[in-house]
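#onboarding

Welcome to the new folks! Below is a worked example of what a typical request in this channel looks like: someone posts a single protein sequence, and someone else replies with the predicted structure as tokens. Don't worry about understanding the tokens yet, we'll cover that in week two.

Example request:
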Amino acid sequence: MSNCVEEKKRDSYNEDVDVVATEDDEHILHPEIRQAAERRLVRKLDFRLLPTIVIIFIMNYIDRVAITSARLKGLETDLGLTDIQYDTVVAILYVSYCPAQIPSNMLLNYVTRPTFYIGTCVVLWGLTSALTGVTHNFAGIIACRLFIGIPELDVRLD
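Example response:
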């Protein structure tokens, strides 16, 4: 008796398809073994992905409240901002954030590896956020806040 079992099946297009299964496949496809392997895989993915997602979420939250904390520590006096300019700095983020959401989501559908796209957005978001700390005037912080909205829309987790 052969280790291979051949049978004819019909797929959704009513074409004949040859399916070859070995005796080893029956062991792999056993429901209990498959469920155990699936649980191990999910646990492995959780241990690798969740810490990274948590760190990104914490950094995103810190970035969102950093501008208000900086105001309490003298941001306005350091950059020579008026109250209206400070309000503009806070609000300018959404000028790039809101209009860029739809094109970014459309682009994400065409990217073959979303991990590269999202990873690049995380790096750009971090660099732009770090560059906010080296600004010296109103125009510099406006530029940083304007450009931070574009990569942040793919990092935002709320």
